[in-house]
Amino acid sequence: MVASEEQVRLWDFYDHKEEAPELITAMDSTLKVEQIYVNKNCKGALFVVVVCQDELIVYTGRLEKKFSAQLEE
Length: 73
Known about the structure:
Shape: globular
Distance between the termini: 29 Å
Number of strands: 7
Oligomer: single chain
Helix content: under 10%
Strand content: over 45%
Structural class: mainly beta
Low-confidence stretches: none
Number of helices: 0
Largest sheet: 4 strands, antiparallel
Radius of gyration: 13 Å
Number of domains: 1
Mean pLDDT: 80
């Protein structure tokens, strides 16, 4: 997974050496990405939590958006 202030990207590496990894763009936004949390050592489903300026977004699996909410100060 790689992130900048505008994008979050995830590469899916296959088990076959002949195939190039597939790039999945999860988010392309004008909001500034501030923090990303990933349960990378979990043997279950992948969960990614992205915190933008005043929004929280939860992705799962192949970075499918499952939940978003506005954050209050």
